[in-house]
Design the sequence.
């Protein structure tokens, strides 16, 4: 019995030194810690209780009123969080300002990146943990769980079930998925500028046969445009409504050999069901040219379109600068979206500059702001539009970077049907 006791106390002390001492390293020497731990372990044999007692003794007070949350419920600004999860991966990150640990925690509801500002992080991939007194703060790629000196991390003795996404195509990706395995072509990759601005180290765009998705990485990766890569262990976070594939420090990225061809055009249905998309192309029909298209005046301070009488909603009466835009509804047979075409792409499409249109307006009183002219040029035209579909004030909006007539004689049945409905 005595031997058993000693054995279990030694086991407890060993575990305490591994898991609890790193939290107290700044406050107490290892010898002092061990002495206190031994004294307490004789009377308290329950590990969690013992741990709390020791933390308390050295000034890390156990937070009584924690907010217990599942990972999917965590939002920006949450404090005193208590979360149970499985560590999907964790890496030590060294910066000029010191080191921290970056990883991802998951439960059955989703995953969340975490950062631990600790001397030592005694847990590893696949460990189940209970995190007490962490806080959540939104960063550029979503909400991050912050673990500080005042956070308590305990091993959780039950298995946390997580549902990893596994092998997916880009079309199948949804916000919150993690453990994603994907093969894709790197369409674009941009490195963060040297000037040291914040944000991910790398940003870019991937495609596979089913679609495109933006990606970002906080660490350097050896990939370039045109590479075909196999990615294992990535996750999806929506940022400003756009799903982004996040490559974490522990995500495995290998070069692959097979050929991947990106889809030329997608359907609006696909894009809308994904919640939007960057750098997408759609073939469709201009079914409406909305009022507000044509020459407009904008506030020179904030860029907002001026109301009647040259009034900016924020800056009052201003001189204003001329601009040109078209607000179209584009229907591709699978869905319809409001599309906003800004000055440059519209000038390219029209083969006329804003100045030319201003000249036309000067010479012809009927021309007005050019609304009728744009309507005649665009309404009923089968076009290829390229740009970004992102959430606007009233749902998704297609911000068009280029618009051209679809001169290829491919009036599919789909389009013929729309025409029929319109007539
Ligand atoms: Zn203004």
Sequence:
């Amino acid at each position: 019995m005595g031997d058993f006791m000693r054995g279990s106390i030694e086991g407890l002390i060993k575990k305490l030194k591994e898991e609890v001492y790193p939290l107290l390293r700044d406050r107490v020497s290892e010898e002092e810690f061990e002495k206190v731990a031994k004294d307490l372990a004789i009377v308290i044999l329950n590990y969690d209780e013992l741990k709390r007692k020791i933390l308390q003794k050295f000034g890390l007070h156990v937070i009584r009123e924690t907010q217990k949350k599942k990972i999917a419920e965590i939002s920006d600004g949450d404090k005193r969080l208590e979360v149970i999860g499985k560590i999907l991966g964790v890496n030590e990150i060294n910066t000029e300002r010191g080191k921290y640990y970056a990883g991802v925690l998951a439960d059955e509801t989703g995953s969340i990146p975490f950062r631990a500002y600790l001397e030592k992080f005694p847990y590893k991939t696949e460990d189940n943990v209970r995190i007490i007194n962490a806080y959540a703060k939104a960063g550029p790629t979503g909400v991050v769980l912050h673990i500080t000196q005042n956070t308590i991390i305990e091993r959780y003795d039950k298995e946390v079930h997580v549902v990893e996404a596994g092998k997916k195509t880009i079309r199948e990706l949804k916000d919150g998925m993690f453990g994603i395995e994907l093969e894709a072509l790197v369409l674009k990759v941009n490195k963060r500028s040297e000037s040291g601005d914040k944000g991910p180290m790398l940003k870019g765009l991937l495609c596979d046969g089913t679609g495109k998705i933006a990606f970002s990485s906080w660490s350097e990766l050896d990939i370039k445009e045109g590479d075909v890569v196999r990615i294992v262990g990535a996750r999806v976070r929506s940022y400003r409504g756009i799903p982004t594939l996040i490559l974490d420090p522990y995500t495995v990225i290998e070069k692959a050999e097979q050929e991947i061809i990106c889809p030329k055009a997608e359907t609006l249905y696909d894009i809308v069901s994904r919640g939007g998309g960057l750098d997408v192309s759609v073939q469709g029909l201009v079914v409406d040219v909305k009022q507000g298209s044509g020459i407009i005046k904008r506030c020179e301070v904030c860029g907002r379109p001026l109301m009647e009488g040259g009034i900016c909603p924020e800056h009052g009466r201003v001189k204003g600068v001329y601009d040109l835009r078209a607000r179209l509804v584009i229907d591709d047979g699978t869905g319809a979206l409001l599309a906003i075409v800004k000055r440059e792409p519209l000038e390219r499409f029209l083969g006329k500059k804003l100045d030319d249109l201003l000249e036309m307006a000067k010479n012809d009183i009927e021309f007005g702001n050019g609304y009728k002219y744009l309507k005649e040029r665009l309404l009923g035209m089968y076009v290829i539009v390229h740009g970004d579909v992102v959430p606007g004030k009233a749902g998704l909006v297609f911000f068009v970077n280029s618009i051209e007539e679809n001169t290829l004689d491919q009036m599919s049945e789909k389009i013929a049907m729309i025409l029929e409905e319109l007539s």
In short: The domain at 166-255 is CATH 2.40.50.140 (OB fold (Dihydrolipoamide Acetyltransferase, E2P)).
